[in-house]
């Protein structure tokens, strides 16, 4: 399903790009790339802590940097879990402790490095009680998660980020955690992003600001108004993002 949805999205993007190129002799290198989706499309949110639909995840797939990922390849290769931002993984204590060493080649599109704190912050945003994130269920067995969900703490004791090293401890064996990290819920997010995801009529992807003030990113999803997501040209690509904070590899 993921590959089908992603293929459909890429096909639509290809059509849009071809229409732009039809009127020019060379590919456009800057400007605004707009994607318009109606509420019926199923796009719920563009915040990884809140999105939980196939269209939403398909959109996030284009900018999400994960610790682990399934390659976008035909079977059987596409079903083999592989490291993405994680350069190394050590599982110990009977699947109750995971230690990730991160690659240093990944950066947010504003140039800041993707460190372990970006993944720790993503987990804490899932657990924030005000967020009511559908992804909280995938992180509630982390040591200290219950206290965050209850509102007594803002961070879980079992999540420790130091530079490019992330340690996650669980209250019970979690042999499926590597697979969990492939979900957009666990995408790297800028550490400065508000801890509590804000659900509003107009919202922007993590690390970006509303187009009402900058003209770079926006989304509307009320009534019959089509949902529109705007980014600086090429901002949705993983390797050549030029604005906002979508992760990219250098």
Nutshell version of this structure?
This protein has helices spanning 2-22, 54-61, 116-127, 145-149, 177-180; strands at residues 32-37, 68-69, 82-83, 86-92, 97-102, 106-108, 159-162, 165-169, 227-232, 247-249. It has 250 residues and is an alpha+beta fold.
Walk me through what this model shows:
By secondary structure, the protein is α+β, with helices and mostly antiparallel strands. The chain has a single domain (2-249), classed as Alpha-Beta Complex (Dipeptide-binding Protein, domain 1), CATH 3.90.76. Helices cover 20% and strands 18% of the residues. The chain contains five helices and ten strands; from the N terminus they run αβαβββββααββαββ. A hairpin with a 2-residue loop joins β7 and β8 (165-169). α1 packs across α2. The two termini are 29 Å apart.
